[in-house]
Amino acid sequence: MQLELNDHRVVDVRPLQRRDREGLADAIGRLSPQSRYLRFANAKPHMSARELDFLVDVGRREHRALVAVDPATGWGVGVVRYVQLRDEPAVAEIAVTVSDDWQGRGLGSAMVTQLIEQARDDGFSALRASVLATNKRSIAMLRRTGFGPLPSHGTLREYELQLQPARTGTR
């Protein structure tokens, strides 16, 4: 599917696949050190082979991801994902990464909105996000898409969105 962003740029959005592994590694490598820090909560110069394997092990209810691709370059410019929590199987943790030059255009919010619908269709009752307290852009994006703060302290803040069950048809 195609998304038109706030600045009228268009991206192609599709489910992430295992064949995207190398492109995902390249996209993470193109992030600024600041963006990598804000996303991973540490200075992460690169992803290990094991981490990349986990990131592309998607396509089932417990772990889904969407990738946004710039049709002009073929580069991945955004990824959103959720992973089911082991201790709370009705809840999934969501994460968002948008390339530096695509931030502030509404891409993250648009992709989160799509992933919310997928999580609802998959029967999750809530989505949760952990964000560095200093990551004001991500916090604003979560708030715009309906997430509310949970009681939390320290450098990480927790946000949650309660999901209503998916509609199963009309009367």
Describe it for me?
The protein has one domain: Gcn5-related N-acetyltransferase (GNAT) (Aminopeptidase, 3-Layer(aba) Sandwich), CATH 3.40.630. The model has no long low-confidence stretch (mean pLDDT 92). The chain is globular, with a radius of gyration of 16 Å. The chain is of the alpha+beta class and 171 residues long. It is 29% helix and 29% strand.
Entry keywords:
Aminopeptidase; alpha+beta
Number of helices in the DSSP assignment: 5
Biggest sheet layout? 8 strands, mixed
**How large a portion of the residues is in β-strands, by DSSP E?**
25-35%
What is the radius of gyration computed over CA atoms, rounded to a whole number of angstroms? 16 Å
- Give unreliable regions as ranges: none
Can you tell me the CATH class? Alpha Beta
Number of strands: 8
CATH topology: Aminopeptidase
Structural class: alpha+beta
Ends apart, CA distance between termini: 29 Å
Number of structurally distinct domains: 1
Q: What is the fourth-level CATH superfamily?
A: Gcn5-related N-acetyltransferase (GNAT)
Mean pLDDT: 92
Q: Can you list the strand order of the major beta sheet? A: 1-2-3-4-5-6-8-7
